[in-house]
Design goal:
Layout: E1 3-8, H1 12-22, E2 28-34, H2 37-47, E3 51-55, E4 57-58, E5 61-62, H3 63-73, E6 78-83, H4 87-95, E7 100-103, H5 108-120, H6 130-142, H7 146-156, H8 161-168, H9 172-186, H10 191-200
Parallel strand pairs: 1-2, 1-3, 3-6, 6-7
Antiparallel strand pairs: 4-5
Helix pairs in contact: 7-9, 8-9
Length: 204
């Protein structure tokens, strides 16, 4: 299978690196390079690539948000997110339904492997550090305090923070603090993500 790749990265040296790397892989063609989110949308629509490699930091927006937009508009498009080697980005890519996440320090071989994977299985997620990141998330989830577990159960019922505060006889500010700690331990950013992770780890 011949893979048509578009990259989205604002850094000139990174774009040159992509071009040099792809030249050694005859089954992958670099058909376009964008430097911004807006340019990326135009290129994808114009060039119909198999795979897009998107960096997390773009001059006109969040690379994850761009990837989510591309996923919604092009369900069969392979999308590889690249960025700092942080668990948060791995989980954001996973939860957004992307094809892969690679840290910027990944080898060329890993990058090209991720591009090939994204081309043939765009809905199947892969990341070199996924198992370790999941283990760290499980360890944090296991460390929830009894109060955090209680608040998690209330979140699962759909209760507002004000309602939770009233039921537990706490101030709303205190509940917000507990919720923030809960999200941090679960490695999530909102209630929906917290409930998904909690269900995955049998916390509900």
């Amino acid at each position: 299978m011949s893979v048509r790749l578009v990259t989205v990265d604002a850094v000139t040296l990174t774009r040159l690196g992509y071009a040099a790397a792809v030249s050694a892989y005859p089954d992958i063609s670099l058909v376009g390079q964008a430097t911004s989110a807006d340019e990326a949308v135009e290129l994808v629509n114009a060039l119909s690539p198999n795979v897009v490699a998107v960096d997390t930091h773009l001059p006109d927006g969040d690379g994850v948000q761009l990837a989510v937009k591309l996923r919604s508009e092009h369900p069969q498009l392979g999308i590889v997110l690249t960025g700092p080697a942080e668990d948060d980005y791995i989980f954001r890519a996973l939860e957004a339904g992307l094809s892969a996440f690679l840290p910027r320090t990944a080898t060329v071989e890993l990058l090209m492997s991720a591009v090939r994977h994204a081309a043939v299985a765009p809905a199947s997620f892969t990341a070199p550090n996924l198992a370790a990141a999941l283990a760290r998330r499980r360890a944090r989830a296991a460390a929830l305090s009894p109060r955090e577990e209680e608040i998690l159960r209330h979140l699962n019922t759909g209760s507002s923070l004000a309602s939770i505060a009233s039921q537990l006889r706490l101030t709303e500010s205190t509940v917000r603090t507990y919720v923030a700690r809960l999200y941090d331990k679960l490695g999530v950013h909102n209630r929906a993500q917290a409930l998904i992770v909690a269900a995955q780890h049998d916390l509900l």
